[in-house]
Amino acid sequence: MERALREASYEVLPLRGAEESVVEHVPRTVPLTVTVTEAKGLTPTLELAERLSRHGFTATPHLAARLVRDRAHLADVVARLRAAGVDGVFVIGGDAAEPAGRFPDALSLLEELETVGHHFRQVGIGGYPEGHGHISAELIERALERKAPHATHVITQLCFHAGTTTAWARQVGLRGVDLPIRIGLPGAVTRQKLVRISAGIGLGQSARFLRKQHSLFWRFFLPHGYRPDRLVERLVPALGRPEHNLQGFHFFTFNEVARTEAWRREWLARLSDADPR
Q1: Alpha-carbon distance 56 to 253, whole Å?
Q2: Higher pLDDT, 237 or 218
């Protein structure tokens, strides 16, 4: 557990105040991903990743295929990130109802990235332990198989059930996907902060996101928010086991980085005190 928490990564949203909060509360050793929203487009995501990179963070922007217009647009994005020293991307299909151009899904964008040529050392793709709201389980897992040769790792969507995550990861391995998997789970998030984030994203999109996962809505809207203690404890025994290649934690902070980082440090201090050495 100590190693997993020391090597954890965080996801942040490109909203007002995110940069300042990350710089103030998050160590430079914590890798970051910067999500993208349909409403705001790619630009805020790229800008925040660039700024965080200048602060010394490893900041990986999400690239949503449905927001990329064409090969020239993609080449511009790659060149921009190279100039900023950003050496990783996380490629998703995106939630836009209609693609802006010729890339309807993550696979098509991954293939075009290789055609255009890129410098990225890390290319992440998504995993879906509880399936996808609009795509059958068989299709989403077949898509993962096809995307895997273009990627270096998988980050899962939120799932509150350790057994579901580990069973899914085992099946992924049986299907021949041997990429390291980082488990996506919520950070320490207050109800009040999530309400503010929902307003910043746009109520419709936030509601769609919350509906994608079983029990997600009510868990976050408990009066005192959410802490991932129990979920982390249940997942730790599975980390590093070869049959499902689960390699670490990726915390969805909903920009509650101060609270999530305080929670992580609290656990690390507790584990350090318990170390018999």
Answers
A1: 19
A2: 237
